[in-house]
Amino acid sequence: MSDGPRIVVAGAGAVGCFVGGLLAGAGHAVTLLARPRIQAEIRTHGLTLTDFGGMARYLSPDDLNLAGDETCLRDADIVLVTVKSRDTADMARLIACHSAPGVQVISLQNGMGNRAALAEHLPQHDLRAGLVPFNVVAMGQGCYHRASSGDLVIEAGPADLAARLSLPDLKVEERADITALQWGKFLMNLNNALNALSGLPLKAQLQDRAWRRLMADQWAEALAVLRADKIRPAMTTPIPARLVPTLLRLPTLIFTRVAATMLQIDPQARTSMAQDLAARRPTEIDALQGEVQRRARALGRATPVTDMVLRVMGWAELADEGLPHLPVTALRAEMAAGQDRQEG
Ligand SMILES: NC(=O)C1=CN([C@@H]2O[C@H](COP(=O)(O)OP(=O)(O)OC[C@H]3O[C@@H](n4cnc5c(N)ncnc54)[C@H](OP(=O)(O)O)[C@@H]3O)[C@@H](O)[C@H]2O)C=CC1
Ligand SMILES: CC(C)(CO)C(=O)C(=O)O
Question: Where is the signal peptide (predicted)?
Answer without folding.
Answer: none
